[in-house]
Batch of 4 targets.
Target 1
Amino acid sequence: MLDYIFTRWRNKQVSARLEQFPSIIFTRLFSDKQQNIPFDVQINLFELAYQMHLSKPMSKISSSRRTKFNDYLPYIKRITNGIYLSFEISDMDSEQKGQAAEIIGEGLSRCLVSSLFNVQENSMNKLKGPWKRADFEAMTSNEESIVCESKGSFDNIPQSEVNRARTQKNSRNADIRIAAINEIGVLSRLIDPSSSDNRNFDRFSKLIIKTNHYIQIFKLAGQQELTRYFKLMKKRFQNKNMTDFPEFSEKQGLWFKLKYESQRQKINGKEFIGKVELIENNRIIFIGFDEKLLNVDTFELFKDYEKVYVNQNDNITTFISKDGVCFIEADLRALRVLFPEIRQDEIKNYQESTWLTDIDNMNEIVFSNYLQFIFKENNIEFQKEKKIRDRIADYTINYEGIIYHLELKLFRKKTQLIYKKDKDKLSEDIYQTKLIEETLKEKIRFLPDVDVKSQILITNKDKRLVHAPKDMIIFDRNELKKLLRDKYYFVKFLSKFK
């Protein structure tokens, strides 16, 4: 992802406008700007990609070892040429546009708020709670609290959505409460930064905010030991006697492991520790963090860097965010230069660390990338989105001369909870029937003029809950479990139907 951004462009302009700011706030923060007059903000695309990933709710990030920082690369690849940030979306359906706009919109909002309000990046956290709540919170360098609700669309955003954003951003107390309305590729509006009673940040609340930030980062990076370590650091801060809690010895053991067993890189006089993985096109990625964040004392004193660091040299691309997180992407041949102690056969592709919970939280675009990895590993020829009359097969594959047409259908886990409140009143059969009816209102249909026996549905549902044509081949949740254990299982599955 880093190399892709670097070789095409690094910065884009975004047109922004400040609206309905109380004069006391506007004068203090923006003496060089005028209300309701658009101005340009330069956005670093590495930072945008980073913030897009951090917009994912913690509950939707699997605890697996899979690196999730490549998941939104398909959106980054849609950025068009030109000075201003815009995306190619003509081939997306309405659902895909909605998913993309939500992710890009919040990433963009985070970049704008961070830039315009001088936010401490390691204080930015996704908010959780009721549906009608703001998206994220942060703290300025002056320790003022900010909450922001973001809306994103590739079309005009109706006033009803703007009003909803204003309601949601007012759901939390903060010194500054902002609605960020992003009509992507056109204009980003920062609206109505009302304030409420000041949220007091004592020493420990600031430390908790900071640890939550790094917990999310390393959960996204698939670094389980680091995620656990920062959770235990958080518990230490929450405990009045900071060394007297049940897991203290576990925390100390993790400290030694991370300190002395992690891979290392020294950049600009700073030591970064982390791990290396293989990504697409025979490239490696190192994700690490400033070693100062490992010790409690230096963690508390750690301040954001003044700016992001971006560099490319000898096909090695480096991005260091202001919160001290380091990404290095390079050709596999650079492994000996960067990490001479690692053998090539010791690192595996990040897709091989995928869990079923990862798939449950993927959208079809990310899941499609995982399947392409499986096809390539199994030497299966594939064609994406082949049109058959008025329908489109998600994939057409050729396995040993036999053509199969694949339909991908992911279902959200939350649909299984629709009838939970009624379950005790119903027999299991009736409960499952109701579940099927509600979950699968959209039937899986035949492709026209294609033998149904050559059509494969790939889904994260149990096949007993799938309303599909009788003879369609179903690669269901149970088959996915086998595939996640054995990346060559897909061809074994196909061999049953030769």
Target 2
Amino acid sequence: MAVRRLPHWLAIVVLSVAVSPVTASSPIPPAAAEQSAYPPSPEATRFFEQLVERYRSLIRYTDSFLFEQRIGSIDGDQRSEVHTSVRARSRIDRDELVVSTRARALTESAAGSTEPGPARQAQREVDLAIAPHLRLRYVDEPLREFRPGGEGFRATGITTVELENQPMVRVELRSVGASPGHPGSVFGLTVDPHSMLIRKVDGEERLADGRQCTTSISIDPSDSEVIPATDESEPSEPPAPPVDLPAVGGLVG
């Protein structure tokens, strides 16, 4: 059987998921359904917190991504459907964030660069709307603020998946208040467990006018650098030996 070496701390998390998965698809006893709805998963929450720490530590980062979003029709009128497709590049240089699209380049070329203050903050919100993976770096409470407005999200599930024939970890986020009868908004973050960088975001949500909105973002990170250790004189614990894990299909089933 093919094996894949993962960082030892991640292997422990993934193995615990394989033994006792706590995912949004797990059955909920009827008596507890109303109380628990989709409860947070300890494993998923812990992994999400590690992911936030990783993005918080980035001082330099670049990627290219494809943002695709489809908003359904109103009362079956296909003319009201909206399909958006945007190719973009994002760059982090310490606290600065730049998300470049062709439309933005043309606008800034005509109007000049964005002035500091409210206009820059408004532009950042626009940038994070199409690059929500970078909310982990720039918002105070990434779970609560993963999407603007609403009551926030919970990390409700974690599983292993494949992306481009590589093993990945997928964390599921569900909006607070979601229940089996009212699933609310759900997003999945597909993460490369070796780089701890998000490679894909996919989600479904219902808009205020009742239309269904589906989002898919494919991300190709090209460069990253983290904050260096502040005190190299302190001895660190020796790394644990790598853990051999079965191929993705053998972990969860």
Target 3
Amino acid sequence: MLAPSPDSDGQLPGAAIPEGDRLAPIAVESSDDPAAPPPPAIDLPRSPALWQGLFNWITLSLAATCASSTTAVVAYQDLIAIEPDLPCDRLSAPSLSDRTRLSCAQQSASQGGLPNLVAALQIVADWPVSHPLFSEMEPLLDQWSATVVREAKTKAVQQHLDWAMALAMEVPSTSAAYGEAQQLLHGWQQTRYQEVAAVYGQAQTALQQQQWATAHAALATMAKLEGRAWQTGLVPQLTQEIEAEQRASELWSQARQQATLEGNGFLIEAIALASAMDRNTYRWQQAQPLVEQWSQHLLDESLAAWYAGDLNRAITLAQGVLPYSERATPATHLVWLSQARQLALASLEQVNLAPAARAIGLAQALLIAQQIPPDSPVHAQAMASIPTWRAQWQQQRAAASPPVPSGPTTGLDRSPTVPIAPAIAPPVSVQQPQFSPP
């Protein structure tokens, strides 16, 4: 289909613009040729709805831009605004602007004096380099920090290391003087540690000799040297060591008093008291050889009682060594050996006991004895007892009617593999269950 051609007025058919919506003609610049015909007028449509919508969008965009700009301006003004009367006595108030805080810092520094200068640094110490006011504050920060570092050096020369370290710690990390302050602080800390450590060494000598007054005097000297700015950690350490040494000395005095009395029962009490001593004390280092002798004496007495058949006494003496952890393992093995023999003897000697019950008691004795390791001092005694107990168990098992189930005691005819014995002596009762004869 062909496009409609314009009429004589230059308009498309049906596209006439109402007179009320027609804008004033736009004049087109005429040619320089006076003979040329006048240019036609160009009519632009003038629709109220179109222009009204365009106006609304422009107004909305302008309003949004103004609103966001106003918010930013208000926030920035709150940040840098200076209150008429500086409320420097309430710097922690959330409503206080950072501009006011900076003004308070300047006011404090201008008053002169080292405390006022340190107070000024403390106001702006936590401001990052990205802070809007940092570029303005940085020259002041560097100036104040340099002054504080200079004063700290003066205090160090005057032998006031506590003051010097306290001042060096006040220099913010964003200051140009921070590196120098940290280097000086490290050196002063090393000097202070050496001073305190020298007195600490004197206190250790006093503790070895149980000179409590000298140790406490050294503790007071160390606390005075450390001050409040920086602590070495040696003061609380020495405090604990003095308490531990005094407690260990009291326990050792009581233990030795018990050991001087007649009878192994008092020796058991002595070992229990001595074993409660702190192993890190000088008193324990001095006492341990004697505690070792006491423990070995009880173990020898316990083994002698085992050979003599006095199994209850053997167990009591061996259990008396258990608090002394350094010899608790051989004492435990001796308890096991004695309990195993008690079970074996009770199973064979108890009157009116069925063969099945005797076999169970012997099986328990075998299983306990087999748990004693080869490096134990009583391993040889355990191995010497096992063949006899195994033969007796086999006899009782064969005589049992009905036979004892082989499940629980299968491992008795070969190397022991059933780990039934705990790290401490098992509470095995010598009283065997009563079985009615078949």
Target 4
Amino acid sequence: MVEGTEAAPAAGTRVSAVITEQTPRGYLSAAIGSAVAAGADEIVVVRAVPSPVLEWAGRFRDIPCVELPTGRKQALGVETATGDVVAFLDDDDLWEPTKVERIRARFAASPDLVYHDHAQTAIDASGRPAAATHPEFAGRSPERFSGMDRDAVWTLFDRIWPGNSSSTSVRRAWALTGTGALRETAWAADAFWLVAALLSDRGMELSPERLTRLRLHGENMSNPREVDAASFRRRHAEASARFAAAYSSLARLAADRRGPTAPLSRFLAQQAETFEFQQRLEVGANARSAAARYLRRGAGRHRAGLWGTALIALASPAAGRTLLYRAGRQRSRLG
């Protein structure tokens, strides 16, 4: 599918908000309210059990989806929405009031633009600004994307791409061609859209504008600071298994399009191996052999912390698990 060559008036570009909820956590009403305040032309909520949100009655379409993975909910949202552009929002995050105006303007100005992502502001569970200092949140420079070599994949994913579904917007006509692959990927939906855009050779933009408030709280893997070691291990093992499968799917997608030795294909395969190593270490399933394989294949050479964890896990898987927990706490530190 190829869009027209002339830019459409911004006012004529409709933006649909697709809000996904995994399990009810009490944040959905605020997310809908932020999409309303931002001026979304349409709001589609995809969740397991539709139910009234009284303060926003009649302002959104409530679509049931019992499948848990974010990617499958997003795929249904893209297929249900009617706007020219789909902007995603997780139920626990918020948009800034200027979000839709900026997204509408960018897609209207560039007919070939299919993917836009931007920076976020961290907030705590109550919605107050939070000082998240970990490089995953504070060490990103999306403004560097326009001039970078797109084969520098490690730099793109680790230092430039802001990530997070709540900051991702896609041109719907283009996105519709990828919903099947998105369903197969299941998790890591934000990475899926980035990879799909890179493989498309279409227009992409990464912006330093902070148009989303990213909520860090005890119910997501981004903020395990109030979780004990045993609970962290269970959650981290589950998340690592999900992402290992997701990145394996993305690696196959990239290999089919670019070949298995392309930088993007190799990076995604290494990411899958990284998550597989962490999952096997957390559950204690052949942890030493998993660490040896991880080191032998070189998947962790770009991340000194995980490389060191694997070395220690060769001698003591329990010590390796302790390092994963400490790293998780450091990652989630606020203030």
